[in-house]
Design brief:
The protein has helices at residues 56-73, 94-108, 126-134, 147-153, 162-170, 193-206, 230-236, 238-242; strands at 7-13, 17-22, 79-82, 113-118, 137-141, 177-181, 184-185, 188-189, 210-214, 247-250. By secondary structure, it is an alpha/beta fold. An eight-stranded mixed beta sheet has the order 1-2-3-4-5-6-9-10. Strands 7-8 form a two-stranded antiparallel ribbon.
Amino acid sequence: MIREELVFGPIFSRRLGASLGINLLPREGKLCNFDCIYCECGWNRDGRTNEALPVPYDLERALEARLMECRDNGTAIDSITFSGDGEPTLNPCFAEMVDVALSLRDSYFPSAKVSVLTNATRIGREDVREALLRVDNPILKLDAPTDELAAKINMPQGTYHVDDVVDAMKKFEGNFVLQTMFLRSPDFDSSSPEVLGAWMDIVRTVRPRELMIYTIDRETPAADLEKFTVQQMEELVRPLAEEGFKIQIKG
């Protein structure tokens, strides 16, 4: 079970290169409004903690110290990435945290991107959406095209409707990366015609600037999950590639 400091890495990311991570959630626990069956952080119930969430001052101190160290050591940073142990937009200071990261990036690693990995549950909030539009890579998750399948894969903790997320994604006017996990279990298959076709229709509706397709890479909390090969995923999304969508695929 992964547990991250407020600022960690840089580590090599399949999708973002040398990534310096930011964890806006408890250092000793997990905080998420999804409980994904594939989450490398484990189940929500196993990560409960009473630890306080960091505030902008905490991030400013920790991030500046790490950026100075990386600069002085000649350590490359391709992306400063909000990820961590759960959903970063749950931190009530999320928008201010984004501004801290952007300012320090400009001072120390101006060529690095600022990225946010989010499950997109809070993009209907204007403050969250505006903060995401300020970063270089707002990476919004959508693993399932229906509420029923999302309940199996993501197990939302509270009200969640795919249609609401899609409507909020439209407000980005294509300025985001859509991230989708491809996997199968005894209960579902991301490659089945009804799932794949409905997901492709959503892609055509929200028209992200890039698709980020990936599959299981680490141990998962749920058993009996199967990954796809890169070649399988390439074939599955070929119609979208032929339509001109930019697609990044990681096995």
